[in-house]
Each structure stands twice: as structure tokens, then as C-alpha cells.
Design a protein that fits this description.
The protein is of the alpha/beta class. It is built from nine helices and seven strands. It has two domains: 39 residues; 244 residues, NAD(P)-binding Rossmann-like Domain (Rossmann fold). Helices cover 51% and strands 11% of the residues. The protein has a seven-stranded parallel beta sheet with strand order 3-2-1-4-5-6-7, sandwiched between helices. The structure holds NADP nicotinamide-adenine-dinucleotide phosphate (NAP).
Length: 322
């Protein structure tokens, strides 16, 4: 799906926002000068009081840290399942860190609407694109990814986030349901990587972030196919690392705890479960999609170039405490 239709209108909207940005930028030197002079005054007064107090040597000013390795400018990131929930949160974080972000879902209209919304909110239409396909449809995936790669010239960051939940007893889980969950939450991640990695291998760099779950580490009676898929994805993360790490590709996973999204709506409104969760999770709350943005930006960035094959839990401390 090409989203050219909405581009012109959005570029106009972005121009309006840019005017405000330019105005802010023109006042930036004055703000910076004021901050510098205030800092100098503060340093001077704290020095004077230190010397007045006891004449002791003052530590040399620390070298400013360079955080440019976290900057994602120029990186092209595809986040699957980013029409809402965790995927949308991750897409927003990568966008804010400077990446060009491709939004994705099954419905082209819904994807276009989210592209519009983010463009309006951020004024960054030039950093946004969108595609639509079902991750369990190999043919549709191939056509969409090939088209996207031609259009963008490659994908630097693949976030395998699209997924579905499951709740049902293990003894009679219908095999169709089992296969649907495994195919959406696990097999699709391999299939997508198989299409995107050849380009990464050619460029000798790339990042893959697989979205796992706290069920990679813990069991619960009614999540059979889901836990099996996510634990499999954790294992696949390591095997991908084993295959591609030497070619400059880093493959890691984020394992969120219980996050308040559409997927967990039923659990959130179940008073008993909500109470149990607040007691069970050391942080005593549901996770927010924003809780996952920082780690995603880190894993997508050059700051994580030597981090590979890891499953990183972001869960308020859940599996750490009994
Ligand atoms: N919420 C949690 O507590 C939690 C915890 C740990 C891990 N996770 C994982 O985090 C990921 C996102 O979860 P969420 O809570 O944000 O779920 P969500 O709100 O239900 O969003 C799921 C996203 O995946 C897309 N999707 C689902 N099936 C798809 C398919 N066959 N093809 C293409 N796209 C598909 C949906 O797009 P459509 O618009 O096409 O439906 C939607 O954008 C999942 O992998 C989930 O297992 C969630």
C-alpha cells in the first residue's frame, strides 16, 4: 500500500508545524545563552561557597557524555502490528529518536489513519510510511516487503511485534487455534526475517527486535499456545543471533510484562485479576506502552551494537519476586 494520497495534505500540516519550530529555533540561541550564563553563575556561587567553607580542590568538570549513538536519524524501521498498543508505542519512540518508521497492520485504511495521526502529532510526515498485510500470508508479505525495500532502499530495523493472545485450557485446545497462534506469533517472525535479512547481510548491518513475553519465563494454566510461541521466539532470537551476528546484525527480544492494551482489556476489567496483578507485580501496576520505548530505541541504535541474542524483560520486576 502506498500512502501518497495523504502525503500532500500532511506535508502542508507539517509545514504549519515547521513554522512554529522555526520560530522556536530562532529563539534557541537566546535560550542557550541564558542557560549558559545561569550555569556559570551557579558554578561561580557554589565554588565561592566551597572555598569560603573549606579551601579544598574542586573536581575537574566531567567530560560531557556523547549520546549520539542513540540517535536513529536515517535508520529505516518497520514495526509490525503498529496500528495500536505496544507496536504503536514502539513506532512512536523510534520516530521520536529520529528513525524513518513504517507502520503496519492488516487493514490499509487503518494503517493510513495511524500514519495521518502520527504525522499530525509530530509534523514528521517525511519520516512515516505504511504497509498492510497479514503476517500469516506468506505471499502478501513477500509482495509488501519487496515493494517497501524497493521504495526505501532497505530496512535497517525490523520489529517483530504483530501478535495475538490466547486463553483456554490446554487439555482441549483446538489444533486450529494452536496453529493460528504459533503461525502469527512465531512463524511470521522467521518469515519476515527471511525477507528482510538478505538486505541487512548485504549492507553488513541491521537490527531485529522480537517482541516476546513474560511467559517466556513463567507459565500459567490458560496460555498454552501463546507461551509456547513466545518461548519459541526467545529461542529463535538466539538462533538468529548465532546465524547473523558475525555479519553485523544484532537480534534481541523485549519481553513485556502485563501491559495495558487492547489485548489485555478483558483482564484489566476483571477486578479479581487486576487486584492479583497489583499484588504480584513488584511495581504494583499495569505496564504502559511508553515503558517499552526506551529499550526499543536502545536496541535499535548503535549504542547496542555489542548486545546480541538477549531477551530483555520489562515487567515491573514480576519474575524477580515470588
Ligand atoms: N499487552 C501485553 O500485556 C503484552 C505482553 C507481552 C507481550 N505482548 C506482545 O506484544 C505484541 C503487541 O501486543 P498488544 O498488546 O499491543 O496487542 P494489540 O493491541 O492487540 O495489537 C496487536 C497488533 O498486531 C496486529 N496483528 C495481529 N495479528 C496480525 C496479523 N495476522 N497480521 C498483521 N498484523 C496483525 C494488529 O493489527 P490489526 O490492526 O491488523 O489487528 C495490531 O496492530 C504482541 O506480540 C503481544 O503478544 C503483549
Amino acid at each position: 500500500m502506498r500512502l501518497d494520497s495523504s502525503r500532500e495534505a500532511l506535508t502542508a500540516a507539517a509545514r504549519v508545524d515547521n513554522t512554529a519550530l522555526e520560530r522556536a529555533a530562532s529563539s534557541a540561541p537566546r535560550i542557550a545563552a541564558a542557560v549558559r550564563s545561569r550555569r556559570a553563575r551557579n558554578v561561580g556561587s557554589s565554588l565561592a561557597s566551597a572555598q569560603g567553607d573549606v579551601a579544598r580542590p574542586v573536581a575537574a568538570a566531567a567530560t560531557p557524555r556523547d549520546f549520539s549513538a542513540f540517535d536513529l536519524s536515517g535508520r529505516r524501521a518497520l514495526v509490525t502490528g503498529s496500528t495500536r498498543g505496544i507496536g504503536l508505542g514502539l513506532a512512536r519512540a523510534l520516530l521520536d529518536a529520529g528513525a524513518m518508521v513504517v507502520l503496519h497492520g492488516r487493514d490499509a485504511g487503518q494503517v493510513a489513519a495511524i500514519v495521518d495521526r502520527l504525522a499530525r502529532e509530530t509534523g514528521r510526515i517525511d519520516q512515516l510510511d505504511g504497509i498492510a498485510f497479514d503476517v500469516t500470508d506468506a505471499g502478501a508479505m513477500r509482495d509488501a516487503i519487496d515493494g517497501l525495500e524497493q521504495r526505501l532502499g532497505g530496512i535497517d530495523v525490523l520489529v517483530n511485534n504483530a501478535g495475538i493472545g490466547y486463553s483456554g485450557s490446554l487439555i482441549d485446545v483446538p489444533l486450529d487455534d494452536w496453529n493460528r497462534v504459533i503461525s502469527t506469533d512465531l512463524t511470521s517472525c522467521l518469515a519476515l526475517a527471511q525477507r528482510v535479512v538478505p538486505g541487512m547481510l548485504e549492507r553488513r548491518e541491521g537490527k531485529i527486535i522480537n517482541i516476546c513475553s513474560v511467559f517466556n519465563r513463567l507459565g500459567r494454566d490458560r496460555v498454552g499456545p501463546y507461551a509456547a510461541a513466545k518461548a519459541g521466539l526467545g529461542a529463535l532470537t538466539q538462533v538468529m543471533c548465532a546465524n547473523w551476528a558475525a555479519s553485523g546484525i544484532q537480534v534481541n527480544a523485549i519481553a513485556p510484562g502485563f501491559i495495558a492494551t487492547e489485548m489485555t482489556t478483558k483482564l484489566q476489567s476483571d477486578e479479581e485479576f487486576d487486584l492479583w496483578l497489583r499484588k504480584r507485580v513488584p511495581a504494583s501496576r499495569w505496564g504502559r506502552v511508553e515503558d517499552l520505548g526506551g529499550i526499543a530505541v536502545f536496541l535499535a541504535s548503535h549504542a547496542a551494537d555489542f548486545v546480541n541474542g538477549q531477551v530483555i524483560f520489562v515487567d515491573g520486576g514480576l519474575p524477580a519476586v515470588l
